[in-house]
Every structure is written in structure tokens, then in C-alpha cells.
Amino acid sequence: MARVVVDVMLKPEILDPQGQAVQRALPRLGFGGIADVRQGKRFELELEGPVDDAALAGVRELAETFLANTVIENFTVRVEESEGASA
Amino acid sequence: MARVVVDVMLKPEILDPQGQAVQRALPRLGFGGIADVRQGKRFELELEGPVDDAALAGVRELAETFLANTVIENFTVRVEESEGASA
Amino acid sequence: MSGENGKNGKNGRNLDTVEHAARTPDTEQPWAELGLKRDEYDRVREILGRRPTGAELAMYSVMWSEHCSYKSSKVHLKQFGDKAPHSDALLVGIGEQAGVVDVGQGYAVTFKVESHNHPSYVEPYQGAATGIGGIVRDIIAMGARPVAVMDPLRFGAADHPDTKRVLPGVVAGIGGYGNCLGLPNIGGEVVFDSCYQGNPLVNALCVGVMKHEDIHLAKAAGTGNKVILYGARTGGDGIGGASILASETFDSEKPSKRPAVQVGDPFQEKLLIECTLEAFHAGLVTGIQDLGAAGLSCATSELASNGSGGMRVELDDVPLRDSSLSPEEILMSESQERMCAVVEPGKVADFLAICEKWEVTATVIGEVTDGERLEIYWHGERVVDVDPRTVAHEGPVYERPYARPGWQDALQADDPARLPRPADGKELRAAVLALLSSPNQAAKSWITDQYDRYVLGDTVLAPPEDGGMIRIDAETGLGVALATDGNGRYAKLDPYEGARLALAEAYRNVAATGARPLAVTDCLNFGSPEDPAAMWQFAEACRGLADACHQLGTPVTGGNVSLYNQTGEAAVHPTPVVGVLGVIDDVARRTPMAFRDEGQLIYLLGDTAEEFGGSAWSQVAHGHLGGTPPRVDLERERLLGEILIAASRDGMADAAHDISDGGLVQALAESCLRGGKGARIVVPDGADPFVFLFSESQGRALVAIPRSEEVRFTDMCAARGMPAARIGVVDGGSLDVQGQFALPLSELRAAHESTIPELFG
Amino acid sequence: MTTRIGVVTFPGSLDDRDARRAVALAGGEPVALWHRDRDLHQVDAVVLPGGFSYGDYLRCGAIARFSPVMESVIGQARAGMPVLGICNGFQVLCESHLLPGALTRNDHLHFVCRDQRLRVENAATPWTRDYAAGEEITVPLKNGEGGYIADERTLDELESEGRVVFRYLGVNPNGSHRDIAGITNEAGNVVGLMPHPEHAVEPLTGPTTDGLGFFTSVLENYLVSNA
Ligand SMILES: Nc1ncnc2c1ncn2[C@@H]1O[C@H](COP(=O)(O)OP(=O)(O)O)[C@@H](O)[C@H]1O
Ligand SMILES: [Mg+2]
């Protein structure tokens, strides 16, 4: 089985309260040197068949219509090589 | 500035109700061929300095103590090349 | 925005300053894209004596939008003030951010309902969440501590696929924001009708409490006082969002009319509440204003025009999330969780210290000047120089043409009397189950269980009770009750009567809890004002509500208008949502709705006539909407209210439940299920069982009276001329209508409670 | 002398006022503690209340755990001071590793607010002495991330050592393993639970007054241990 990963992040112009909360906490935890934090979602999809163009197009459509809300979020779709193999 | 990505996923043995909910919705949406869905978090950290070993060690510690709850979650840390470069 | 007006180079070279605007009168400006009409743009030029700068154009266009200026509705809303009944309870009337009502013992209450309809269709979770956020800031800005929220909702058909997208998102958003803010949700409505398919109505109400001396109004008095912006940083999200979204109809050909909605941060808002109230109590605030639709444009122009002087603002000092924003964008941004305060110079340090304590970003962005102008600077250059009144208060006012639609007569002539009715006990039984399991009449607990009703520890009544009730003083037991109601089906049949019916129902719900109704807020959800039929509906509803408020002695203290709830030609049902606030001297006296003790006597108060126009039965059984809505007699409503309040005060009633959509049988079933006790009901002699059970005649309620109180209660009703019929007794484990049918509570419960989870769970 | 019970306010705490009221109704002296203040002001016990500390954006309780006040609370808890974590407070205790396991998203993915029946399994902690083992109580429950999970070994250990303090009855509202609603640490002084006893202390505003026992128990505890 092959793994496809969909990363969904808020668009850059959209407020990210989650990322902000993490960032505000960093100094208190003693972590410096981090200019910005953004938090999003990661979906790992295990496909039954081969990861061909048709399958990827399907995942892309799924991401566009369901996994991401494109009014406020961007997404990327990619095939995960290494980990898929090791799993 | 360089971007480091921390992916946090529930451990495989832990039930993932969010991933399951996505999976259950797939047939209704007309998407077949997906055997499993898991949902986790993706953190994008913009580092102020260079992404050297020390910086990565710092991020790893941050992930271990803060971004992930290692009782239930695994994490991976990686440097994002392409997008970091294009940004 | 593009070209010379919109963009400023990094060094400000292309900045459209006031001087530049004066020198370049012929520059093309994007007034149409920003929603202004030609004559409105001309008026701006006339007011300024030159063309507006890009920043000025941004301000006028958002502030003169329908959403912010009420340009189509103003002439009709005037009646709420003109016809307002005299009320000693009204401390702050219509016109402020929210009205303020005296509830005694030195306490004042402020409450208001607002719409967030369009954003909630585009992005249900965030749209609804920021709807709660916005109305809560209105309440904080009055100096009150928010104590509860409510959410009247309307969706498309329950089984439509898009409703499965919209409803769960809206509910999660309202819960996500309200729960995180720590405000109990004490009521609302959920109505399904295909007329709301592309235009769900998401209204949100907040109620807050303060001491009389803490009332604060939004104004910027006192030359030299500082203007402090505090809360979230300003970003590029939702620029012109609410105002433009709420001022246009959706048109799938113009996706550009769907700007990004804003993302809410309830945690930031919680800090804003604490920080603002602490600053109020420390006496540090001269004036305050929340930032909602039209953001800084609104806050600065309203603060300045409500004060005596002018104002000077340095836009460079606005903390930004995105450093590339232009001055126009900063002025129009609708980033959430921001407030603006006017503070005397000597108190600024203390104010900032409180903000620091709560980790709220706060910055002095300007000061009150002794002039009359609102001047805004960017990189040291003047980009706005206006009379703030012309922005905030002297927008266009339209007398839109309106006309009773041609189809209204035919609709009213389509009398439900022709519809086939259940003929015997068996058919009645089936009709009851069909009614109670229909999406509109089914239990809403799947929704309301997603809302925290316990937080703050003062919730005395919460869903599914007739009204929500909050204790405001633990020593004396002083409390307030609220209910919201509106029936778009009734209003479609007759918008004037529909508005009166909405008030009557909310009033009745509040009185049923034992609280005395005091004041009204309303959210008027209608179609396009440019359509004479929709405008007629709006005008009629305003007239009806103003008349009814006058008659019941409950002034409108504030509210909201949402127009353009329309997809193409199809408008939503005219939907006036009315919120009524009541006061109760001791919450221990409240009357709940549940039948709890066997042997309690069940009385029906009021008269039942054959009234099925717009009824739930006609919808469920026949998908029918026609005829005229039930008659409403407001004197009778007032009398019913007095009886219910007296019964509560004197401990005569164990339970009370208003009768509205679904009729008597709906109310009986709800009271039985709430208490887990059955009822034996006798149809009065000569009454038609179907009419008795299903009619929606107004001015009625159900009460459960302990035997020991029966004589006292019936004597009171007789003395006051209130028809009271003993129709049964609390008993057993079924709803048993003698001679007709018996429904075990388990069967009734399954029918009533499974519908919504099956649709959305 | 009355027992001084500290109630911590984090930014985003919501039920701190209710917890203080419950302490007062029980006859204790509520002491407000501030997240930035390490000083515990000589309290005899601490309540970590419900809410959404710091917005709960990362994970519930994850940021609160690192606040200055928690340094002191963690120290005192290890030294035996009674500490009660309610809902978000329970999450903070797990994130602080004062209690084992974790609280995850409800299995049905919705926030749920309901009157919840519980069985008191352990009536020996300083917070449950006024109950009887096996007693059934009803208190409000309200959370979005209340599913208690831990690995099998930890669960077995909790069971065998009698450290499951409360169990859900009737409905398991969030998918918690073994219907666990609340647990205690090895020493028995730190208790965390998802339901809200502080919302069940007055007949007018709560479904019952079953929650009052938490706040009276700890008073007795103080008297007993100082006798
Ligand atoms: N969206 C909602 N949010 C909160 N409470 C709601 C909501 N919808 C319905 N309720 C509550 O459910 C109960 C029943 O609603 P409804 O049948 O509309 O009452 P009524 O007909 O008496 O006005 C009421 O307590 C009402 O406040
Ligand atoms: Mg009612």
C-alpha cells in the first residue's frame, strides 16, 4: 500500500490562533530563535491501489472539496516515499 | 529564514476518531480506494538563524517536550527545502 | 484596488494623500467595486469638496454599505423609536451599540441580537463563531459583563446535502467560540425550510449585566485624550468582509464577491473581556467601541462623531499581522477581537498595565483633538481628512419603493381548511408521531448538548425550557429570562402579523418562566431591499413589530437588519426574529416546563379556534403553506403573561409551557418528556379532537397545578377573565388522550429525539 | 481556622469563579491564585479549574503546564498537597505527568454537555472522603477532549491499585478507556476528573448538589491530618 500525504495550512493572510499560541509560549519554555509558527493539519491516506496520476487526481479533488476549506486554507498533496516503504 | 516542519501523529495503536470520521465520509463523497486515513498536526517553524545541528536539536527537544505529547503521539522533524527556498 | 489610489510604494511615493487627491480630481476611482452607487460617490465628492483619497473612499464605502448605514431600512426602523411605549426601565435606548434596561437593585442589563448569515454560509464554522464574537464585543463595549448567549438559527431543508455541511459547522462554531469564551448558551431556535437553502440565517444574541454606574457609551470626549487600539493585531483577513458580504446577494457568477471570512480567536476575546472590564472598574475608560464590521473605519469615525471634538490617528502605530497592508486595507480590515478605547493621558499607563496583565497587545494610535475633523496619517502624510459625522451618521438614506406582491392574495386564499385531516384516534396518533419527529418539531438536544449551559454557575433555566434564565445576584435571587422567536411561515403569509406573532411568542415564553417581560431586541432577516416585494415585507414587519411593542409596553432597545438574504430571485421567508428580556425578582420562583409529579392538574389557558394557516401540521402532513396566520390578541397575551407571572410568584404552578407551533399536543409531549411523566388528557365536550390538539391559536399556555392550589388558581383566572380549562392530570407512562389514542413515553421519546441525530450525527 | 483552598486562574480559565464559590459553599476559604505567580499563598490544597487555558490550542493543558504557578503546584503535589484537577485541570495534570495517560478528542468528535452519572470507586482520596465507595452521583460533564486513554499496562495498574476514582455510568460520553472518568496518583493526593463537581453544588443551578462532597472532603482531610 502507498501513502499519500495531504498537508492543509491556513492561508498566510488568515489569522492562525493555534500557531500564535505556540509561538507566544516559546520564550517561557526557553526556546528562542523561532520567528514564526503556523499550525495546520496533516492527513495520511493509505491508498489501496497504485499511486498513479488518476489516484493522485482523486486525492487532490478530495483535498479540495473536503479535507481543506479553500476559503481559508491551502493544501499540498504528495506521495510519501521513504516512510511508506519502511512501514 | 529557514523552515523546519514538525509532523505530529497519534501513535498507530491509538484510536484516531478524526481520521476515522474522514474515512467514513469518503464513500458518501464518492471517493473509493482509500484503505485508511489518519489525521495529525503539522507545525511550520520559521527559524531566525541557520538550520544547523544545534538548531535541529533544539527543535527536536521542543517537539518532544511541547509540540507532541509522547504518551500518545509520535513526531518527525525535517527541514523543508524547496518551499523554504522559494519563500 | 489598483493603480494610484490603492497602492503605496514602500517609501510612500504613490501615496494618495489629501493634497494629492485635491490636485488630481480626475483620477479614476474604484467606487463601484467597493459597492458605492454613482450618486453616492458624487455625494462623497460634494461633502469633501474634492475627490476622496483611496483611504477616504475605503471608509465611506464600508460605512455607507447597507450593513453599516442601514440606508434602506432606516426610514422604517424609525418607528421603533417613534412608537416606543414609555418605559421607566429603559436606561439607554435604541441607537447605542446595545440598549440598557434597568432590572432593579441597582443592576442594568444590556442585550442585543445580530446576524452573521452570509459569512456562515461561506464558512459555517468561522462565520458562526465570529458571529458570537462580534455580538459579545458589542456587550462588553457597553461596560457590561457578558453572562449568556443565544443562537436563533435557520437552515435549508433538513435532508438537503448542503444542510449537512452548514448545520454541523455552524453549531460547532457557535459552541467552539461560546464554550471557549465561557458563556452559557441558554436558548435559541433551529428551523429548517428550503427557502433558507442558499441563505441560512445565523443570528446570535448576547446579554450582559452591569451596575447602573458602569454604563459606558461610545464617545471620544476630551481634547488630548488618547485613542488606544487593543486586542488582536490587524491582518488582511476579511477586508470589507461582513459589510460587503451582507450587502450583496450571492451570485455564483461573481466568486470575487466572496472575500475570505475571518477566523475567530475566542481565547483572545476572553482576555479582551477580562481586560476591558478591569479597566472599566478601575475608572480608566472615557469611551469605548468594539471593532466589528468596517473595523477601524467604523470605530474611529463613530467614536469621533459621538464626541465633541475631532480625532487624529497614526495608522503606522496600528499593530499589524501583515506588514504589507496598505492604509486602505488597514482601515477596512475586519480582523476580529479588537477594541478601541479613549483614555485620559494620565490614565494611559494604568490602562496599558492592565492590558499587559492579560497579555493583550495595546497601542496608542491617536488622540482626541479640538477640531471637528477626523484626520488619519500614514508615514507622516495625511490620507484622511473628513468630518466624521458624514462618514458615520450622514450616509445615504433611501425610500425604497415597496409594493404588496401580486401573489400575496392567492397565498392567503389557499386556506388549509381544504386539507384532509386525521379522521380517528389511530390517524391522530400517527399524526402526532409524524409531527413530533419532523425536523422542525423534533428535540434539538443533539445541537444544544454541544453548548456549555453550566459555565459561570448562574444558569437557572436552559434548553429545552421556554426561556433561558440567569441569576444575576446570588444574595437576592434577582434574575433575567430571555427567549427568541420568529416564524417565517407566518410572516410569509402576513408580514405585519408575523412580526406581531414573533413578539407574542417570545413574550409568552418569557412569561411562562415566571419573568416579567421588559424589553425587546430584534434581528430582521429579509430579502433584497431592491425588490419591492421584499421591501414591502420588511416595511410591514417593522410596522407590525413597532405596533406590537407599543401595545405590550416592551420597547425595542436595539437589534440588527440583515437584507439581501436572497439567491437569485428567491428570497428567504421574511424572518423577523424577536428576543424578549424579562426580569424575575427571585429565581427560586421560576416555573420550569416539566410535568414532575403524578396527580398535578393540567390546565389549558386561553381559547382554541380552528387556526392552521402556516401551522406545523400543514407543513408536516401536506407540505402546505397558505391561508392566514393565527390571530394574535396582544391584550390576551398580556393577561396570560400576568397570570403566569402571578402563578410563579405565588407558588401556584409547578410547571408552565407555552403553546406555539405544533399546538397543544406538541406542548404536552414536551412537558411529559421533560419530566418523564405521562398525562391523561380529556378532550373537552364539543371540541374537535384534531383542532384541540393541533391548532396553533395564540395566547395559550399549559400549566400544571398541584391540587392544593387549584381553587386559588382558578379563582385568579376567573377574576381576571382568563379562560382556564382543566384538561387532564399528570399520570402514568403515556400521553393518553382518552377515547383517541395512547402513546407510551418511550415511543414518543424515540420519535422526538432520534430525528436530528439521525440526520446530522 | 478554615482550610485555604487555592483556585488557579490561567488566561482562559472559565470555571475558576465557580470553583471558588463551591469552596466557599463547602465552608472553606477560596484563595485566587494567578498563573504568573509562583507563590501559593499558604494554601492547604489547590484546585485547577475547567476552561480553555491559553486557548487550549496546542493540546488541552499543554501550555498551562509550563506556567510559573504550575512549577509550585507540581512541587507541592509531589510533596503530598491535595490537588484536584477538573476537566481542563485534569488535562493539565496529565500534561504535567502528575497523573498518567492522556485526554483525547471525544470519539464522536463533538463537544458534549450533559448531566452525567458516575460511580465513586475510591472514597479514600482527600477529595472523595465524604462519599461512600460505590456511591452513584450525577454532576455536569462538558468537554470536547475528554476521552481518557492510557496503555493497557497503565490501565491495569490503575485498576489494581484502586486508582480509578470515578467511572461513567449509563453512557460513556467520550470514549474513555474502561469508562474512566477520574483517577488519582500513586500517593492518592492528586485527583483529576473530567466531570464538573463545582457545577453541582446548588439546587437551583445544578442538576444535583452531589458535587459539594469534593469540597467538604478536603476540609475534613485538613482537620484530620492536622489533628
Ligand atoms: N440553536 C439553539 N441554541 C440553543 N437553544 C436552542 C436552539 N434551538 C432550540 N433551542 C432551545 O430548545 C428549546 C425548544 O425550542 P423551540 O421549540 O423553538 O421553543 P419554543 O417553540 O418554545 O420557542 C428552547 O429551550 C430553545 O431555546
Ligand atoms: Mg416555548
UniProtKB/TrEMBL annotation, chains A, B:
| Source organism superkingdom | Bacteria
Q: What's the protein here called?
A: Phosphoribosylformylglycinamidine synthase subunit PurS
Purpose: Part of the phosphoribosylformylglycinamidine synthase complex involved in the purines biosynthetic pathway. Catalyzes the ATP-dependent conversion of formylglycinamide ribonucleotide (FGAR) and glutamine to yield formylglycinamidine ribonucleotide (FGAM) and glutamate. The FGAM synthase complex is composed of three subunits. PurQ produces an ammonia molecule by converting glutamine to glutamate. PurL transfers the ammonia molecule to FGAR to form FGAM in an ATP-dependent manner.
Family from the record: Belongs to the PurS family.
Q: What binding partners and quaternary form does the record give?
A: Part of the FGAM synthase complex composed of 1 PurL, 1 PurQ and 2 PurS subunits.
Catalysed conversion reaction: N(2)-formyl-N(1)-(5-phospho-beta-D-ribosyl)glycinamide + L-glutamine + ATP + H2O = 2-formamido-N(1)-(5-O-phospho-beta-D-ribosyl)acetamidine + L-glutamate + ADP + phosphate + H(+)
Q: What is its EC number?
A: 6.3.5.3
Q: What class of enzyme is it?
A: ligase
Q: Where would you find this protein in the cell?
A: Cytoplasm
Entries under InterPro entries matching the protein: PurS, PurS-like_sf
Q: Which gene encodes it?
A: purS
Question: What pathway is this protein said to act in by its record?
Answer: Purine metabolism; IMP biosynthesis via de novo pathway; 5-amino-1-(5-phospho-D-ribosyl)imidazole from N(2)-formyl-N(1)-(5-phospho-D-ribosyl)glycinamide: step 1/2
From TrEMBL, chain C:
**What do we know about how this protein assembles, alone or with others?**
Monomer. Part of the FGAM synthase complex composed of 1 PurL, 1 PurQ and 2 PurS subunits.
Protein role = Part of the phosphoribosylformylglycinamidine synthase complex involved in the purines biosynthetic pathway. Catalyzes the ATP-dependent conversion of formylglycinamide ribonucleotide (FGAR) and glutamine to yield formylglycinamidine ribonucleotide (FGAM) and glutamate. The FGAM synthase complex is composed of three subunits. PurQ produces an ammonia molecule by converting glutamine to glutamate. PurL transfers the ammonia molecule to FGAR to form FGAM in an ATP-dependent manner.
Originating organism: Streptomyces boncukensis
Annotated region Disordered: where? 1-28
Annotated protein name in UniProt: Phosphoribosylformylglycinamidine synthase subunit PurL
What are the subcellular locations of this protein? Cytoplasm
Q: Would you tell me the Gene Ontology cellular component terms?
A: cytoplasm
As one GO molecular function, the record gives: phosphoribosylformylglycinamidine synthase activity
Report the EC code(s) recorded for this entry: 6.3.5.3
Please indicate if the UniProt record lists Metal-binding as a keyword.
yes
Residue numbers binding substrate: 115-118, 137, 262, 334-336, 562
Give the top-level enzyme category. Answer: ligase
- What is the reaction catalyzed? N(2)-formyl-N(1)-(5-phospho-beta-D-ribosyl)glycinamide + L-glutamine + ATP + H2O = 2-formamido-N(1)-(5-O-phospho-beta-D-ribosyl)acetamidine + L-glutamate + ADP + phosphate + H(+)
Q: Where is the PurM-like N-terminal domain?
A: 95-210, 465-584
Query: Which pathway, metabolic or otherwise, does it act in?
Result: Purine metabolism; IMP biosynthesis via de novo pathway; 5-amino-1-(5-phospho-D-ribosyl)imidazole from N(2)-formyl-N(1)-(5-phospho-D-ribosyl)glycinamide: step 1/2
List UniProt keywords, sorted A-Z: ATP-binding, Cytoplasm, Ligase, Magnesium, Metal-binding, Nucleotide-binding, Purine biosynthesis
What lineage is on file? Bacteria, Bacillati, Actinomycetota, Actinomycetes, Kitasatosporales
Annotated Phosphoribosylformylglycinamidine synthase linker domain residues? 32-71
Binding sites annotated in the UniProt record for Mg(2+) 2 = 138, 290
Listed under GO biological process in this entry are: 'de novo' IMP biosynthetic process
Q: Which residues form the active site?
A: 67, 116 (proton acceptor)
Family per record: Belongs to the FGAMS family.
Q: Which InterPro entries match?
A: PRibForGlyAmidine_synth_PurL (IPR010074), PurL_linker (IPR041609), PurM-like_C_dom (IPR010918), PurM-like_C_sf (IPR036676), PurM-like_N (IPR016188), PurM-like_N_sf (IPR036921)
Location of the PurM-like C-terminal domain: 223-378, 598-733
Question: Quick one: which residues bind Mg(2+) 1?
Answer: 114, 560
Automatic annotation (TrEMBL), chain D:
Matching HAMAP family, A to Z? Answer: PurQ (MF_00421)
- Annotated transmembrane regions: none
Molecular function terms, GO-annotated: ATP binding; glutaminase activity; phosphoribosylformylglycinamidine synthase activity
| Listed pathway(s) | Purine metabolism; IMP biosynthesis via de novo pathway; 5-amino-1-(5-phospho-D-ribosyl)imidazole from N(2)-formyl-N(1)-(5-phospho-D-ribosyl)glycinamide: step 1/2
Question: Which species does the entry assign this protein to?
Answer: Streptomyces boncukensis
Recorded catalytic reaction(s): these are: L-glutamine + H2O = L-glutamate + NH4(+); N(2)-formyl-N(1)-(5-phospho-beta-D-ribosyl)glycinamide + L-glutamine + ATP + H2O = 2-formamido-N(1)-(5-O-phospho-beta-D-ribosyl)acetamidine + L-glutamate + ADP + phosphate + H(+)
Its biological function?
Part of the phosphoribosylformylglycinamidine synthase complex involved in the purines biosynthetic pathway. Catalyzes the ATP-dependent conversion of formylglycinamide ribonucleotide (FGAR) and glutamine to yield formylglycinamidine ribonucleotide (FGAM) and glutamate. The FGAM synthase complex is composed of three subunits. PurQ produces an ammonia molecule by converting glutamine to glutamate. PurL transfers the ammonia molecule to FGAR to form FGAM in an ATP-dependent manner.
Q: Which PANTHER family does its entry note? A: PHOSPHORIBOSYLFORMYLGLYCINAMIDINE SYNTHASE SUBUNIT PURQ
* Name of the protein: Phosphoribosylformylglycinamidine synthase subunit PurQ
